[in-house]
Structure formats: C-alpha cells, structure tokens
Design brief:
Layout: H1 8-12, H2 15-25, H3 29-50, H4 55-80, H5 95-99, H6 116-125, H7 138-141, H8 143-150, H9 170-184, H10 189-197, H11 204-234, H12 236-270, H13 273-291, E1 303-305, E2 317-319
Antiparallel strand pairs: 1-2
Helix pairs in contact: 2-4, 3-4, 3-8, 4-8, 9-10, 9-11, 11-12
Length: 320
C-alpha cells in the first residue's frame, strides 16, 4: 500500500514492511540479492509506466534497509574472512572479477577468445569450495539500487491527470518473471538454459523456491487468456472442456518428464558404490537399534545426492 501511495514515510511507519526487509536480509545471500533485484525492477517499471518518479524512493527504501542489514554480513564473509573459514583470500584486484561472477557464466566466453587475460585471472582465483564464491555478483545485483536511483532518466512528462492503468504493467512484470523462471527452473526451459550456458550453473537450485509461487501466478494468468480465447472460438461449454482437457494433458506431460528425469537420477545414484556403502551402514545401524528393542519413530537417512552433471571441485550435497 505504501508503494501504491508512493510514500517512503508510509514504509518507515509500516512494521510489516520493515519486518519483511529484516527477514529477507537474513534469509541468505541468494534470496536477499534477488529480492533487491526484484524491488529495483518493480520500482523502475512502475515509475516508467506511471511516469511518476515518486515510485523510485518508495521502492529504494526497502532495498536500502535490506542492504544496510546485508552489508555487515557480506563484510564478514567476504572482506574479513576468518582464517579458518575455508574460503580463499581475495585482494582488491580480485573483487571486480568476483563482482561479475554468477555461476561461472563468464567462462562461456572462453571459446570466443574474449577477454583472455581476465578469464585466465578469473580461473586462477575461482574458488574450489562451496561458500560465498557462488552468490550472484554485487555488480550484477547493484542493478536494484541503480534502477531506483537513476531510473528517473527514463521518465517523460505526461499531461496532467493522464495515468495508465496498473494493468498495463502486467506484461512487463510477466516478462521479468518469465526470465526468472527460465533461469531458476531445474527442468524444461531452465534445463536447456543451463546446458547452453554452462553445466556448472547451479544457482537455480537455491532460488527456485523464491520464484515458484510467482511462476504459478504467471502460468495461471496466461492460461486464463487461453481459456478465454477457446471459449470465444468454440463457445462457453465446448471451449471450457477443451481448456480443461488441455490442462490435464500438460500436467501429465510435465509430470512424466519430471518423473523420468528423477528416475534416471535415482538409478544412477543406486549404481554408485559409495551410495551402496552408505545405505549398508544405515541398515546396519537400524538393525542394531531394532535388536536392542528401540522403536523407530522417524527414519530420515542421509544420502549424498549427486550433481547432474557432476561439478568439479564441489562437495556433494547431503539431502534428507
């Protein structure tokens, strides 16, 4: 509501907004930076669509609050870096390269001979352990603040009282969310995107839940248009039946594809000697517990889930 009213003061007085900023800022680097990116995009899009610069400070305020909480966290893990943290030390000259890092996408330029020296240096300092090296670079994420601070350059004056409807912003936000879906979805278009860019991309595994609900909203909004088109073409009853059948078919196709991929991953996992050894150890532990009369309340075996494809230099995740 404070954003709609273009009132930064309203945001300061709104405890819900401030609480959300604190939660986002302390929920992990991926969630925090993609929240900043989303806020910056929405502020710029609203200001451009509505031709009203007051949206910019309204959106910049929660981004600034989040960033103020996030900076000390980043300073500890990136700048201070305790000696026993396991992260490689960085110099001031290294930071620009790390700033542009986003899951090694830049390595895709290597076959084209672009920026060979920078790529060589980048590969030399690239971390081999999972940690702060994998978060989207601050140079890319700074778009959130830049959009809010300098977005007024894109605005144009309109006549008094001429304001487009809020519905006109929907296609722009849909385009942004579709990009997020393509980037973060582990299957379908996301899988194609990852395979084309670099197999090392794995950030989508962390941010996929952040956009899952938005993806559903976009899908149902687009499907609503399909239903309206079918009803206008074939009539209300027949068009509704066709839309329902088509939706069921899409769900089945998506489920079959996802299940097939999951089955292949499970099959590959079960063929690994390390997994067999681990499961044998788990069964032995449970057998001892059963022989001693212990009742098994909840069984959550820990298994090392393999990356698909394997990522060099990274330890396997431990999944329940």
């Amino acid at each position: 509501m404070a954003v709609r009213n273009r009132s930064p003061t309203g945001m300061v007085k709104d405890p819900v907004t401030l609480a959300c900023c604190m939660v986002i800022a302390t929920s992990g680097i991926y969630y925090s930076f993609f929240s900043l990116l989303t806020w910056g995009f929405v502020g710029l899009a609203l200001a451009t669509q509505e031709r009203d610069w007051r949206y910019l400070p309204a959106m910049a305020l929660p981004a600034g609050v989040t960033l103020a909480v996030l900076v000390p966290i980043l300073a500890f893990f990136v700048a201070v870096t305790p000696g026993d943290a396991g992260f490689p030390a960085r110099t001031a000259a290294d930071q620009p390269l790390y700033g542009f890092r986003i899951s090694d996408v830049i390595i895709g330029l290597e076959p084209f001979g672009v920026a060979r020296n920078a790529l060589r240096d980048y590969m030399a300092i690239r971390g081999k352990t999972e940690g702060t090296d994998a978060w989207p670079g601050p140079v890319l994420s700074a778009f959130a603040l830049l959009a809010a601070l300098f977005g007024s350059l894109l605005l144009r004056r309109r006549g008094p009282g001429v304001r487009p409807a809020y519905g006109g912003l929907t296609p722009t936000l849909n385009a942004y969310l579709v990009f997020c879906m393509i980037y973060c979805a582990p299957f379908g278009l996301g899988l194609i995107f990852n395979l084309l860019m670099r197999p090392e991309i794995r950030a989508q595994n962390r941010i996929a839940p952040f956009f899952a609900f938005a993806a559903l909203l976009v899908f149902f909004r687009l499907w609503q248009r399909v239903v309206l088109r079918l009803r206008s073409r074939f009539g209300r009853s027949i068009g509704g039946v066709i839309a329902a059948v088509a939706l069921v078919v899409l769900v089945l196709v998506n489920s079959i594809g996802s299940f097939a991929l999951f089955a292949r991953q499970q099959h590959a996992l079960q063929r690994q000697p390390a997994f067999a050894t681990e499961m044998t150890s788990i069964r032995a532990t449970l057998a001892v517990a059963d022989s001693e009369g212990l009742r098994r309340i909840l069984q959550l075996p820990m298994a090392a889930w393999p990356e698909a494809p394997a990522i060099r230099g990274f330890e396997l995740y431990n999944h329940l």
